[in-house]
Amino acid sequence: TTSVCGITTYRDTVIEEHRFREVFKPKPGLVDGSLDFLGAMKPLDEVSDECRIPIEQSEADILMIAAEDDHNFESVQWAEAAWENCQKFGKKNFSIKIYPGMGHALDAPFAPVATAIPHMLAPKGMRVYLGGADKMTASRSQLEGFNDIVKFFSSRLI
């Protein structure tokens, strides 16, 4: 897991930004008027440890969700790398859920699946493609994801 939206700070810890590739040109997205930014971020093997969020040091139980059709980040690859790192450091209270067909956004159950949104990365009048093109599969995965999150918190907070 890395800091993708800029520098992250927590107490005395500073986590540097995981930057975009030096050369990247988005492709047209599957939704008219959208751009696909998948692959824009530097690959994890090119990212320094200063950009990594040290979740393996956390005492908290962690549920990481990943979407197989995420077109903003390589969610599944990043989640699996985080899991491997937690295993390496002996963190046992970490789990991953991977959802088929789900795009980048985890929308509320029974809400329309957001496949493209206005975003500061896209030129005016364009949107960023999020994935989840098979809306039936994405919708089912979002419902399952929502239920898994509710179960996760219910078992720990109540």
How is this structure best described in words?
The protein has helices spanning 75-88, 135-157, and strands at 8-10, 13-15, 27-28, 34-36, 62-67, 94-99, 116-117, 127-129. It is an alpha/beta fold and 158 residues long. It has a 4-stranded mixed beta sheet, with no helix packed on it. The longest helix is centred in the C-terminal third of the chain and has 23 residues, at 135-157.
Q: Largest beta sheet, briefly?
A: 4 strands, mixed
Helix/strand order, N-terminal first: EEEEEHEEEH
Which range best describes the helical content: under 10%, 10-25%, 25-40%, 40-55%, 55-70% or over 70%?
A: 10-25%
Average pLDDT: 90
Low-confidence stretches: none
**Total E-strand runs:** 8
Strand content: 15-25%
What class, by secondary structure content? alpha/beta
Give the count of helical stretches: 2
Q: How is the largest sheet built, in terms of strand order? A: 3-4-8-7
Intertermini distance: 28 Å
Which outline best applies?
globular
Gyration radius (Cα, Å) is 17 Å
